[in-house]
Amino acid sequence: MEHVCDGGRVGEFSLKFLGTGTSVGVPVIGCGCAVCRSGNPKNNRTRASVVVTAGEYSLLVDTGPDLRAQALREGLTQVDAVLYTHAHMDHVVGFDDLRAFCWRRTQPLPIHASKATLEDLKRMFAWAFAPENRYPGYVKPAGVVIDGPFHYGDLRVTPLPVEHGSVDTMGFLFEYPKAKSMAYIPDVKVIPPSTVALMKGVDVLIVDALRNEPHPTHFSVGEALHVAEETEASEVWLTHLGHENDHDHLSAVIPDHVKVAWDGLELR
């Protein structure tokens, strides 16, 4: 499989899974279950994140605690903007590792998030957003409130508001000329009808599928399959997977157009 290491070439569109795991990753610390002891590398899951490459732009979605290792593993050297789904720890605490993507920039790094998520980021990483943050080695963020669709070159990004417990959360719909549309929703329990409508007929749906059993704030595998039917997505990838999901076993019991994502997988 080809890998995008330098932000891609003009005209290309791809989405790479930096991580496909839940908040504690897989293997889980102290767990001796079959999945955590598995020799299958596709059962090794770092915290959920993707990078989208569209022409000359590379957009990172979330900065989890594994960002440094993920970037080194995939040769990621360029990030032109960061999109945040929400401010849970497993999606934000790699924030400081963004400094490596600011060293080559003369302008602040755009940080796109909902108003509530941006306020959380400013509280958690106040030093970065402070006016006195002038040292060239630090992260230089430029907060941008997401209030509707926005563009990077020919890439259109549409926010997808969803319910994930009591936290303000969103996914993203990526549309690029002459390419398949992709919707990415890593943390979700309820998708409102208005958001389902935005995704109707999407080519590729990437969605939370924590485990088989119900969970109070995450989709089960069954709930993920249900929303796949609702959106009429022609291709579905399951992500944000817990250690209850063995890659090969889950792959064998889901419909043919539904696949189990793994760290390092790239969709072009």
Going across the major beta sheet, what is the strand order?
A: 6-5-4-3-2-1-14
* CATH overall fold name: Metallo-beta-lactamase, Chain A
Helix/strand order: EEEHEHHEHHEEEEEHEHEHEE
Number of domains: 1
- The chain-level structural class is alpha/beta
What percent of residues adopt helix (DSSP H or I)? 10-25%
Write out the CATH superfamily name: Ribonuclease Z/Hydroxyacylglutathione hydrolase-like
Main β sheet profile: 7 strands, mixed
What is the rounded Rg? Answer: 18 Å
Q: Low-confidence stretches at least 5 residues in length (pLDDT < 50)?
A: 1-9
Distance between the termini: 10 Å
Number of strands: 14
Tell me the name of the CATH class. Alpha Beta
Q: Which CATH architecture? A: 4-Layer Sandwich
Strand-residue proportion: 25-35%
Q: How many H/I helical runs?
A: 8
Large-scale geometry: globular
What's the quaternary structure here?
single chain
> What is the average per-residue confidence, as pLDDT, rounded to a whole number?
94
Structure, explained:
The protein is an alpha/beta fold and 268 residues long. The chain has one domain (13-267): Ribonuclease Z/Hydroxyacylglutathione hydrolase-like (Metallo-beta-lactamase, Chain A). 21% of the residues lie in helices and 27% in strands. The protein contains eight helices and 14 strands. The protein has helices at residues 67-74, 89-92, 99-102, 115-124, 126-129, 193-199, 221-231, 247-253; strands at residues 13-19, 49-54, 57-61, 81-83, 109-113, 141-145, 150-152, 155-164, 167-175, 182-185, 204-208, 235-239, 258-260, 266-267. The strands form two sheets. It has a seven-stranded mixed β-sheet. The chain is globular. Residues 1-9 have low confidence and may be disordered.
